[in-house]
Every structure is written in structure tokens, then in C-alpha cells.
Amino acid sequence: MSISPLPLPERIDDESAMVRYLGALLTADGASGRRDLWVFMLDGDGHPLDPATCVDDVPADPAPRFTGNLFLLFRRTLASVAPDGSVAMALERPGPPQVCLSDRQWASALRWGARREGVRLHGPYLVVGGRVRRLPDGEAN
What we know:
This protein is an alpha+beta fold. The protein has a single domain, classed as Cytidine Deaminase, domain 2 (3-Layer(aba) Sandwich). It has three helices and five strands. The protein has a five-stranded mixed β-sheet with strand order 2-1-3-4-5, with helices on both faces. Helix 2 packs across helix 3 (101-117). The longest helix has 18 residues, at 64-81.
């Protein structure tokens, strides 16, 4: 999936604004047919930083080392470009719109990585079937 060429909003200051922003960007062109992890950085005031990054074709089961290293990179990047900034993440996948075990595992792994590195995380969100929703809190079952 490609990102739609939409202007960046002035500020994302709540959950519904984040869902609208991600929906406008990620659902316009249709699903990619694979599992992708989208990363969006925001400055300390909630202004999106350009560009968004996509980790293509991630596995169904997240590896703790991968998510830990990913958030180490985010912490270092934010320290240099937006010290009070944050990261929004969206897992895009094909298939049914219901949240599945793999989605919950990704959510838990991403939240763990963010806590470990002290990175403020929005979401994570799930993008499937043209819909964006926040993945539920809680550990994988």
C-alpha cells in the first residue's frame, strides 16, 4: 500500500484525530495484500513529522528482539529531531476485520518495546478491510 498524498494535519491531539489521520493516509489505495507495519513520528505538540515509514511484510509473530531494536531506533531518532515527540504505529494486514491472536501479539510486543525504551506510543492501530481501529490493551492470550 502506498501513502496517499494528503497534506499533513496541523495537529493530532486525540484518539479520533489519529484514527482519521491514519484512515485518510492508509486506506485510500486499498490493502497491500501483506502484513506491513507503518510508523509515524509526531513532535511534542502532536504535529506529524514527514515522512512515514513502512516496514514491509512483517511476520505474523513479532520477535521481541525486533520490536526492542525498533524502539531503540525510535528513541534515538526522536532524541535528535523531536525530543518530546512520540510514535504512532499501525499494523496493516489482509484478512478478516476481527482482531486475531497475531494482532494482539503485535500490540503487546510494540507496547513492550515502547515501555522498554521510554518512547511514547500512540496505538498501535490495526488497518484491515478499509478500517482503522486501535488494538486493544492487554496481553496476548
